[in-house]
Specification:
The complex is a heterodimer. By secondary structure, chain A is of the alpha/beta class. In chain A, about 35% of the residues lie in helices and about 25% in strands. Chain A has eight helices and ten strands. A six-stranded mixed sheet of chain A has the order 6-7-8-3-9-10, with helices on both faces. Chain A has a four-stranded antiparallel sheet with strand order 2-1-4-5. The model of chain A is unreliable at about 1-5 and about 250-255 (pLDDT under 50). Chain B is an alpha+beta fold. The chains are: A alpha/beta, B alpha+beta.
């Protein structure tokens, strides 16, 4: 399923996750095969509850699969302990959550620098890189605000900055533009395009067809299974999507 | 009415949803009400027999006594002067009837293993108008009989009755009867041992060496309520020589002192109930506060669908008052069962106390205390939860701090480990709860200090009890051991109970803190923090309350101990090394307790916490 070319950053085979709800087994992820190569962006679309977020959680080690295997950066990971997973995640994976999941006891900039501090970067270096990312995403002026003082869009951009600070091999983004206005969406897409150019891989769950169209490939999910697989390969370059977004004319940073 | 029905339905739903927390609250409230109940039942249970015997013996209103120390030089004794003062007292216009003065002979009773100090009171043959002992076996003194009447406690201790004999300084005397009176306490709590004899027997005892050393006179006044004023008005006749003393006592004072042993038990249980009650308030506040935090979102939902703030508060009160009511019933039921057993170990001035009973009034007091505890613990968090806007309530259960704070910012730059900085940040999240936790834990620390002081004191008491008998104490030495054993069992049992309660309290604190932090910690793990790091973060966040508790609890405990130390317990200061050990062990123990729920949460996959919690 991987695009021809580079080595897969992450490769999943027969990935399955079954939840028991009121005695009924629900196959949230049902035998998914997937590979994301270095520098590749893959979008995942599908209706709510089809297993997109569950798939991201399994690939990032936030949940355990009931069946199937995952190879991350050339290493089998399904049997790793929680601690080993945590250490692996620090450098390899950056998460952007749909509901941001900013640590509400830390300021915006502290949230961003947290993963850098966890890998052992000096406080000064972590702060420098965090501020740089916040500036790039247009929220540097909110750096000392607590999460409950940030708008949805600002929180999302802080969450994106946090995912990028360790330059991970793979970014797992769950609706990264879901709370953003058109202008902020454009900033995120530009950033993602830059990441792809620098060799980082992205797996982006989205409901927004325009965002999905900027990916190299599009996976469509339903009832936990991948039912469609489309090679886009620059069909909708970021520039054209941004032009389309600009038509909405919503440049405000709603709070 | 519809409001109330809705509140009841909501309360029932909450109870079903969180049965473990409800059970914990019920357990702590039950412990407190049970202990209160026992204490209240015991109080005054010895009053009944005293009052009955006082009435049956035409008990005194004012008692005048003249004594000398047993080991003192007789040169100080002036019985004639004492008689003159007694006569003056008996002639007072307030006096309606006079018993005595009766002469006391001092001697030694021969008992197994040695001798016991004895007072033989020479009585007239006829019935005294005041303080005529109530015969419980055999008969009273009569002409032509040289038998003696034994005080009930002495007869019990010797295990003798009418028809048996006793030996006084080698002289054998027949036991004619056994009697009790309120003017003389029950042996061995009241020493020396007492027998009543006729003038003839007195002469015989004088011949074998018993000497005349004391006098006692019992007065009845026209109005018993005047006793205190009478004693005060005539205090000029009281006098204390180097080895002898003449003093007045009133029936009320004697009545209050007459059952001091059961009062010790009641006081101990009552104090334990109070301490458990205080800890219960702290625990209830933590549980209810924690439930409120968890219910904030639910309150938001309820408010959003039109439930009024009044109905929400009513639901919480119904829920917690139902628990308090159940706890009162169970606690009082348990108290009713335990109180008679405790009373059984007691000795009072007049034998066994009555079976302790709980009156409706006392039950109401216990129920009122339980209700007050839950109302106190419910209203504040409920009102706080309701003051929040509906949107804020719906947004999140946990309250973020207003800002990073200079101290924690400084801590970060000072090079503290990341988990420490995160823990400190987390600690600032709920300052009120941190303070509540600290107060609750400080009580536990204080009680540990008291227990540390009690142990050597009680051991010293026990050692004193089992020490070789002093001359004249062969029978009474060690006879009160079982009372001290009972007190010791209650005190140490209470200390153990409080320790368990404090542990439960700490576990609740830890469980609530772990739940509050679960989402943040799951996020931390998603970012690369290990489970061990999140556990350490939670421990750091809660350790502040524990350290504050140690800082408050140690002086509080020492203060409590100094109060107890000033009572009947021998002064045994709590060693500095023990205090240091407490200061070190309590935070370590607390950290271990916090780690329990923290590890439980850390074992859950982060995705599950982030998605469902």
């Amino acid at each position: 399923m991987s695009a021809p070319g580079g080595r897969p950053v992450v490769e999943a085979t027969g990935l399955t996750r079954i939840y028991a709800a009121d005695g009924v087994a629900v196959r949230a992820v049902d035998g998914v095969d997937l590979a994301v190569e270095a520098g590749e962006t893959v979008s995942v679309m599908g209706p709510s509850g089809c297993g997109k977020s569950s798939l991201l959680h399994l690939l990032g080690g936030l949940d355990r699969a009931d069946a199937g295997e995952i190879v991350l950066d050339g290493r089998r990971v399904e049997g790793l302990s929680e601690t080993s997973w945590a250490v692996l995640r620090r450098r390899t994976i950056g998460f952007v959550f749909q509901s941001f999941n900013l640590v509400d006891e830390l300021t915006a900039v502290e949230n961003v620098e947290l993963p850098a501090l966890l890998v052992g970067a000096s406080a000064r270096r972590a702060r420098h890189r965090a501020v740089e990312l916040l500036e790039r995403l247009g929220v540097a002026d909110r750096r000392d605000h607590m999460p409950d003082r940030l708008s949805g869009g600002e929180s999302q951009r802080v969450a994106v900055a946090r995912a990028l600070i360790n330059d991970p091999l793979l970014i797992l983004a769950d609706e990264p533009t879901g709370n953003l206005d058109s202008r902020a969406t454009g900033e995120i897409l530009r950033l993602f395009a830059d990441l792809r150019a620098s060799g980082q891989s992205l797996l982006v769950v989205t409901h927004d067809a325009r965002v999905a169209s900027t990916a190299d490939r599009l996976l469509t999910m339903r009832d936990g299974a991948v039912i469609g697989h489309t090679h886009l390969g620059g069909v909708a370059p970021v520039g054209s999507v941004l032009a389309g977004l600009a038509d909405f004319g919503d440049a405000g940073g709603a709070r | 009415m519809r409001s109330f029905r809705l509140a009841v339905r909501l309360a029932r739903r909450n109870l079903r949803r969180r049965p473990a927390q409800a059970a914990l609250l019920l357990l702590t409230l039950t412990l407190a009400t049970g202990m209160f109940g026992v204490g209240m039942a015991l109080y005054g249970s010895a009053d009944g027999p005293w009052d009955r015997v006082w009435a049956a013996t035409d008990g005194f209103h004012v008692s005048a006594a003249y004594y000398r120390g047993r080991d003192a030089d007789r040169a100080d004794v002036d019985l004639d002067a004492a008689r003159a003062r007694f006569a003056e007292l008996a002639a007072a216009p307030e006096v309606r009837a006079v018993g005595g003065p009766w002469t006391h002979l001092y001697g030694l009773l021969d008992v197994a293993g040695g001798t016991e100090d004895l007072t033989a009171e020479i009585r007239d043959l006829g019935r005294s108008p005041v303080d005529q002992p109530l015969v419980t076996a055999g008969s009273w003194l009569s002409a032509g009989s040289d038998g003696v009447v034994l005080e009930q406690g002495l007869a019990d201790a010797l295990d003798v009755g009418p028809g048996d004999t006793i030996r006084v300084q080698g002289h054998q005397l027949a036991v004619r009867g056994v009697a009790m009176t309120v003017s003389r306490g029950r042996f061995p709590l009241s020493r020396p041992a007492q027998i009543w004899i006729t003038l003839t027997t007195g002469e015989a005892l004088r011949r074998i060496g018993l000497t005349e050393e004391g006098l006692e006179m019992q007065l009845r006044l026209h109005d018993p309520d005047d006793a205190e004023a009478f004693a005060t008005a005539h205090e000029a006749i009281e006098g204390r020589g180097e080895t002898s003393a003449l003093f007045l006592d009133t029936w009320r004072r004697r009545r209050a002192d007459s059952h001091s042993d059961i009062d010790i038990l009641a006081g101990t249980v009552f104090a334990a109930g109070t301490l458990i009650g205080l800890l219960t308030v702290a625990t209830a506040a933590v549980i209810v506060g924690g439930r409120m935090a968890a219910q904030t979102r639910q309150i938001g939902t309820l408010k959003a669908v039109g439930v009024t703030p009044r109905q929400v508060v009513l639901a919480l009160l119904v829920e917690n008052l139902a628990l308090a009511g159940l706890a009162t019933l169970v606690g009082l039921g348990a108290g009713r069962m335990v109180a008679p057993r405790l009373a059984e170990v007691s000795q009072t001035v007049l034998g066994r106390p009555e079976t302790p009973t709980l009156t409706w009034g006392r039950a109401a007091v216990v129920a009122g205390v339980a209700a007050a505890v839950v109302v106190l613990a419910t209203v504040r968090p409920a009102v706080r939860g309701l003051r929040h806007s509906t949107v804020r309530s719906l947004a999140s259960g946990a309250r973020p701090p207003r800002g990073p704070g200079h101290r924690t910012r400084w801590a970060a730059t000072a090079g503290l480990p990341l988990v420490a900085v995160l823990g400190l940040r987390s600690a600032r999240r709920r300052p009120a709860r941190l303070l509540t936790n600290a107060v609750g834990l400080s009580l536990a620390v204080a009680l540990i200090v008291v227990a540390a002081g009690l142990r050597p004191s009680l051991n010293r008491l026990a050692a004193a009890g089992s020490a070789p008998a002093q001359p004249g104490e062969a029978l009474s030495a060690g006879a009160v051991d079982h009372l001290y054993e009972a007190v010791r069992a209650i005190v140490l049992g209470t200390a153990g109970l409080l320790l368990v309660l404090a542990t439960v309290n700490a576990l609740i604190i830890a469980a609530l803190a772990a739940r509050d932090s679960a989402r943040n910690h799951a996020t931390l793990r998603a970012l690369g923090a290990t489970p061990r790091q999140t556990v350490a973060t939670l421990i750091v966040s809660q350790l502040g309350a524990c350290l504050l508790a140690v800082a408050l609890g140690l002086p509080l405990g020492l203060g409590l101990w100094s109060v107890m130390d000033g009572g009947d317990l021998p002064p045994v200061p709590v060693p500095a090394t023990t205090l240091l050990a407490i200061a070190a062990v309590v935070p370590l123990g607390f950290a271990a307790l916090v780690a329990v729920p923290a590890r439980r949460w850390a074992r859950r996959p982060p995705a599950r916490v982030l998605t469902y919690e």
